[in-house]
Amino acid sequence: MSTVKDSIDEIIRARHSVRAFLPNPVPKTLIMELLDLAARAPSGSNLQPWQVYVLLGPSKEQLVKKVCALHDDLFLHPERREEFKPDYAYYPSKWISPFIERRRENGWGLYSLLGIAKGDKEKMHQQHRKNFEFFGAPVGLFFTAHRSLEGGSLIDYGMFLQNLMLLAKSRGLDTCPQAAWNSFSEVIMSHIGASREEKLICGMSLGWPDAAHVVNSFLTPRLSAEAFTTWLGE
Ligand SMILES: Cc1cc2nc3c(=O)[nH]c(=O)nc-3n(C[C@H](O)[C@H](O)[C@H](O)COP(=O)(O)O)c2cc1C
Q: What pLDDT is recorded for position 141?
């Protein structure tokens, strides 16, 4: 007999970032159901910092066109990258061990699965570009928060996002959370009609997975709890 525990374990284990989707639409009622339940996430003083923008059809396509064109332009003119600043620093400005090694392992793992050799900048660019096509997903999501909110709200946001991804998985849908969009905050915030008081937290692709695509066989390792846990008072 399958228990609640088994189901939760299974969903947590089954979720992984999906980077190739089928074009089949996701019903609006289903998206609302996921968002309603995801909002059961805890947040300090119940601030509920989340603001969600759902992009479908032409609105999604227009943004994809704009940002892909920008991404291509920056590939040809890397000196212009400075002009595109995220609303907050997602990654450290200085990479140190062991994080730099984990980042490299993750990046090269994905590229080698796709047959992209180290130094093949054109192919890397094309793969990175798929972020800005929402990896072919029918639903593009953007998450914003009020600029006055601090780091604590990012913790709360993470719980909301994880709820959303697990809920999606439980219904046969998949996701890819995306910080790649963050550099293009200005273009995105204007496109979605967000106010100047909001900051972009991240984007997310949502849809039905393309199970046949090799990119979706990419599974990532984790350290065991033993490696990151200190016991005291035994
Ligand atoms: C907030 C956040 C932002 C991320 N941004 C991107 C992104 O822009 N593009 C991408 O392909 N993956 C992105 N990822 C996915 C991570 O690479 C992935 O979660 C990690 O490698 C672990 O793999 P898994 O999600 O398959 O378990 C992001 C993940 C998180 C949590």
A: 99
